[in-house]
Specification:
The structure is a single chain. The chain is of the alpha/beta class. It is 32% helix and 36% strand. Strands 2-1-3-4-5 form a five-stranded mixed sheet. α2 crosses α3.
């Protein structure tokens, strides 16, 4: 099983990303939690424990964790300490800047999935 802990539901992934994830088995989405500016270290720890329990119950073969840095770091560390493979999605960004008829500069970015990389 491949557990996706991010703000990007697997139903919106491109075919090649879904195919790569499915090499680990069924894809299960676990929505990344909302992180608020008021959170202190103990609140992060509580949230990590809550998500760790949710994930461990699923008995995953791999977990992709991507999002707010402090939560991500702590969850990745906890999963790895338990011997679980933790991945991040890699992409290549192709950006183009252009000026419209009103002289406003726009930036358009496309992210192309490259593969998963283990933390």
């Amino acid at each position: 099983m491949f557990v996706n802990v991010s703000n990007h539901p697997s139903s919106l992934w491109l075919k090649n990303q879904r195919k790569s994830a499915m090499e680990y088995g069924e894809i299960v989405d676990v929505a990344f939690p909302a992180i608020y500016k008021e959170y202190n270290s103990s609140k992060y720890d509580e949230l990590v424990e809550e998500y760790l329990e949710k994930i461990l119950i699923l008995q995953p073969d791999a977990v992709m964790v991507q999002g707010e840095f402090i939560f991500t770091y702590r969850l990745v560390k906890s999963l790895k300490e338990r011997g679980i493979k933790v991945l991040s999605s890699r992409s290549e960004r192709v950006s183009k800047e252009f000026k419209d008829e009103n002289n406003v500069i726009h930036k358009h970015s496309i992210f192309e999935f490259v593969g998963f990389q283990e933390y």
